[in-house]
């Protein structure tokens, strides 16, 4: 207390010192005293109130503790009394065992009395239920079945409660209700028949299907109730749980599988289109069934059954199994295409799962592939292998058929523009087109692979085509009278080359993506080269045919007979023109080449006739006459080939001008100017050789041996400035060497 008083005094001194720091504050001492007195009175009042409150609480607590003590003493006395009474009543409880047994027996008898009516009328109720089943009154039949099952289950439950180990009484009850079990099985059989035909029933009699679903729902509720009771008591009636809902879905699944499998009406032996028909029937059935399921069946089932989604899953699974089975069979190429087209395209198209009436419940993007990608790849590999063999066979057969046409005695057909042709290009590219259209139905990737295959086989085919055309020519040369229409069919072969070119371009443009063109450029170039070779060899063989007929008349050129007035050139022109009436049936790219080549060969043969030195002019008169005849005949050739090349843009002046230039050398009357004339000739045609000049001077007949040698040696020393546009022609012309001084030297 003394310590507390000292702390209080110190605190008060410190507080007063804080208040009286200035002299003027002494005037307020009285005011400060009154204020501190009020504060002291307030604190003392609060302190008294707090102490009073604490005292009241203590007083109340003591009172309650006193009451609790009295209550504990009362309870203790009561427990003593109860314990005393219990000890006195033990013997009495043991004497009540008979009463307990009587209560249990009374409970059983009460259950028996309650079900007495059903117990005595079990056979009658079973018969009535069977009649109701036969009449199609399934709901009423099920109601009676439920009553019977309830009676049996209650009796068995009471027996179980009384003595769970007494199997004899249990079996007795079960045997007595044996007909009820048969009734349950008969009813279930009827239910499953309706479920199997649910898609038909829902259209004709939806009420019947609804009744079946209600019965199944009742049984599901009873199953759940019995399972709950088993958890509590350990007892469950025989035959429970029935699981009719699970059985219903199993039956639906089997029904769907059977429906899918049962759509195959034909086999490959009876109908080549068996698979197409099979797949189309599946498509129609599945689409119809799902539409019915969505619009009608869905309304007959509770929402939690989600019947449409479950049926959709069943159909997808059944289809997947069926497609796997079909894929495992030894399918032909067209059957593989049909299967893959159906699986990869038709299944998710608007013709089936993508049908607008099935959305939004069916999302094709969420549907898995009916067959695995590995199986798809295996089928595609098998298809490509089979297709390769087929294309090779088809091309070989098409060529053999075309070869048979080559020996016919009738001319080949002409197209709408009058050009000869055979059916070979149309057959080949129709085959390619059909296979590409089929491949395009499956996938873009397969279409590209098939196109590459077609072009690859086309490359090999064209090589065989070239060889066959060559053999055709060789066979004809053995006997020029056979085949009768050799020229016309060789023209058709040439035209086919152009048709092949156009068809290849068209095929690539139609079926090949732009970014893939570079990968085929080398193959395309190779085919163009082969086709150009075939056409070139064909044109060459036709010109050989012409020049074999011209050979006797070419042999007359530059002979005494020719100088005396032979009509050999006239005959040559008529013959060439006659042949070119047939050659008019050659398509333009090759016809132009043909005309140019014929023109060149005629001029070459004419110049060759000069270089053969069949004649040597004796005097200036003969030289003049021969030169003028040469100029006249050059003009005939020019007129002929200008006529044949009308509209082609061919230069008909240059080649005939060579003949005229040679004629000018022969016509020259002043030998001193011969060197100048010959040098002019050499400057125009720089490929002319020394032996050509020697032969030309020999034909003139007035040049001595020394003059020839001087002219040749002088020309050899002179510069040569060839025309860049000049196409060499003399290099093809050989000259007999016996009289060539240059060679002797």
TrEMBL record:
Keyword flag Protein transport: yes
Source superkingdom: Eukaryota
GO biological process: exocyst localization; exocytosis; protein transport
Keyword Cytoplasm among record annotations: yes
The entry's keywords: Acetylation, Cell projection, Cytoplasm, Exocytosis, Golgi apparatus, Protein transport, Transport
Gene Ontology cellular component terms for the protein in this record: exocyst; Golgi apparatus; growth cone; membrane; midbody; perinuclear region of cytoplasm
UniProt GO MF annotations: SNARE binding
Main location: other
InterPro entries from the UniProt entry: EXOC3/Sec6, EXOC3/Sec6_C
Locations listed in the record: Cell projection, Growth cone; Cytoplasm, Perinuclear region; Golgi apparatus; Midbody
Assembly behavior: The exocyst complex is composed of EXOC1, EXOC2, EXOC3, EXOC4, EXOC5, EXOC6, EXOC7 and EXOC8. Interacts with EXOC3L1. Interacts with BIRC6/bruce. Interacts with MYRIP. Interacts with SLC6A9.
UniProt record similarity statement: Belongs to the SEC6 family.
Function summary: Component of the exocyst complex involved in the docking of exocytic vesicles with fusion sites on the plasma membrane.
Protein name: Exocyst complex component 3
Taxonomic source organism: Apteryx owenii (Little spotted kiwi)
